[in-house]
Amino acid sequence: MTAPVDAKPPTPGLTEGERDYVNRVAEHYRDTDNMAWEHGFLIGWLMICDPVEQSAGRLCEALGVRRESVDHIDALLVPPGVLTRKDLPDGEYALAMSLDVWPKTVQHAMLAVPSFHSVMEHGLKVLEGEPEERRRRLLNMERFFRYLGEELPAVFDRYEPPAPLK
User: Fold this and answer.
1) pLDDT at 154
2) Which domain of life does the protein's organism represent (predicted)?
3) Residue 53 and residue 74: Cα distance in Å, rounded?
4) Domains located in the chain, CATH noted
5) pLDDT > 70? residue 10
6) Residue 88 DSSP one-character state
7) What is the 3-state composition of the chain as percent helix, strand, coil, each rounded to the nearest 5?
């Protein structure tokens, strides 16, 4: 019998503080993206692990997660560059979180907002002349995405990455 997909893994290789942190990351992703606990654990651990590069087997061992979860995160986060993958000589692979990934990843996603706004504008044209009740949801979305499209570029222009740790 297997544990539920969102059950908290035992995390045998983590300290109490590390376990608390990866639990919080897992909880965030579960609550915001409906992500399985194991997947959030993996992301949280890859944010703080030492060494930075972890073999898939080591991730399973340290976190008490299934290999399928590691393979899922590999397939999900390596292509967009959130994680890097290194094939190992024994047929295994290792994952590492890219150092400056989050600002670039979030910026890429957020700067796509204007193109989604144009889809909302098109929808309003399609529904032109239709009752307001039918158009209201789309009108609210169009207004919100227009606002985001105008404001987000300035947020990224003002962001300054932290200075290197000493």
Assistant:
1) 87
2) Bacteria
3) 13
4) 16-98 (1.10.10.10), 102-158 (1.10.287)
5) no
6) -
7) 60, 5, 35
